[in-house]
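hey m, so remember when u said the tokens were messed up on ur end? i reran from scratch. heres the input so u can diff it against urs
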Amino acid sequence: MIIKVDDLQGPEIAQLLTQHLQHMASLSPPESTHALDIEALQQEDVVFWSAWQDDELMGCGALKRLNARHGEIKSMRTVDAHRRKGVAGKVLQHIIVEARGEGYKRLSLETGSMEGFKSACKLYEAFGFSYCPPFGDYIEDPNSVFMTLAL
């Protein structure tokens, strides 16, 4: 698998992110849905990676700069056909390595508190993320959990 910085111009990425946004909207009420659309992912403070095997998209993830020492993991998604193959773990590991290389001291994330998000929480726990209070512009929300990792 090759993980590379992506400009979000390809149709495969557009399709995957559309599915991601639709899935997030189906699980969370609008006020608790914090997934970024393509335009938001193309902002200067975000780096977006896609994971490929040959010419097949396998997944994606992004890192949003909160400040010079703190980043937020965004848009973690695996293509349905590649779930349970370790794609998300490889993308997450790549993001952690890149964040360390950029001098970040902390990574944080927001995800849902509902049953549909339990496997994501288990993945983050396996990488050493722990639960924390809201960070950045987030507020307490029964539909969200917040996690952080000191680098």
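this time it looks ok to me. Residues 108 and 148 are 4 Å apart (CA to CA). if urs says something different then somethings off w ur setup not the seq
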